[in-house]
Amino acid sequence: MQQPRAVSVGVLKGGFGKTTTALNVARELAERNDRALLVDLDDNGHLTLNLGFEEHYNGTANKTNHTEDVLVNSTDPTEYTVNVIDDLDLFPAHEDLESVQNALKDATMGTTRLRKNMIDPLLGDTYDYIVVDTPANRGKLNDNAMYGTQNLIIPLRPEHGYESGLVNTINRLVKEAREYFELDILAVHPTDLAGRIDHDTRDRRLVKELCTRKAVAKHVPEFAYLDEDDWKAIDEGNYSGKLPGIRHRGSIDRANEEGLPLRDFDDTSDQLSAYQELAAIVEQGEVNR
């Protein structure tokens, strides 16, 4: 096992596969190591709700806003973690994360609370890896995730707005954070691809932008990377290599519907290796090409 590490999965755009990425990367980290923790800081609570923890999201399970208890009042986070499957646990979201945002604005060192109250006490002792599903907007919860983990995975879907999603995430999240602390991009990857790459499709434009944009290309995992020779072969109709990115599969959608990581719904999926590679990148702390 590599050294314990925390990582955020984030992009300043909703609907870009953030929750699916966070869940499956955390599951693969748990499978490859000992224990892993998912932390749901997204105010929509999709991760928590999809995994079947509605009573924790709406507060009936604990009769308290557990996120506020931990981040603001320094309560032991293990009082509120729940088991997802095997060695993977979850710190659930709460429906009233807006009040937590407001409380953190007034709290002393409000940006450091996730690290102080959860990551530092748990990482390397209780859990080998911690994966944080972040909000799709700026705010104190996102600031806590960035400062707490200081590592970031950025997923992008080939939908309208992916350009602004990537640019805003780099400029308004990464660059601004780096004015105050170190923040490493571990991976930038396309997900939910279904279109052709030998035609002028949105899939092709997304993959080519990631693979040819100098500051980004070094963070693209092997499962999504195409070099100059690959693009030439594609344009000449001679390409016989892998299709890049995480491809759209019904099994991924059905796994989400069933509240399961892909491994536990269909361990024969041809896309499982992509999440395994992302887990390896988290272990290594970078893309090795």
Describe this structure in words.
The protein is α/β, with parallel strands linked by helices. The protein has one domain (5-277): Rossmann fold, CATH 3.40.50.300. The chain has helices at 18-32, 46-50, 54-57, 66-71, 97-106, 113-122, 140-149, 162-177, 202-212, 214-217, 228-236, 250-258, 262-265, 272-284; strands at 5-9, 36-40, 82-85, 88-91, 129-133, 151-156, 184-190. It has a 7-stranded mixed β-sheet with strand order 3-4-2-5-1-6-7, sandwiched between helices. Helix 8 (162-177) links the parallel strand 6 (151-156) and strand 7 (184-190). The longest helix is centred in the middle third of the chain and has 16 residues, at 162-177. The protein starts with a strand and ends in a 5-residue tail after the last helix. The mean pLDDT is 96.
Task: List the SSEs and their pairings.
Elements: E1 5-9, H1 18-32, E2 36-40, H2 46-50, H3 54-57, H4 66-71, E3 82-85, E4 88-91, H5 97-106, H6 113-122, E5 129-133, H7 140-149, E6 151-156, H8 162-177, E7 184-190, H9 202-212, H10 214-217, H11 228-236, H12 250-258, H13 262-265, H14 272-284
Helix pairs in contact: 1-14, 6-7
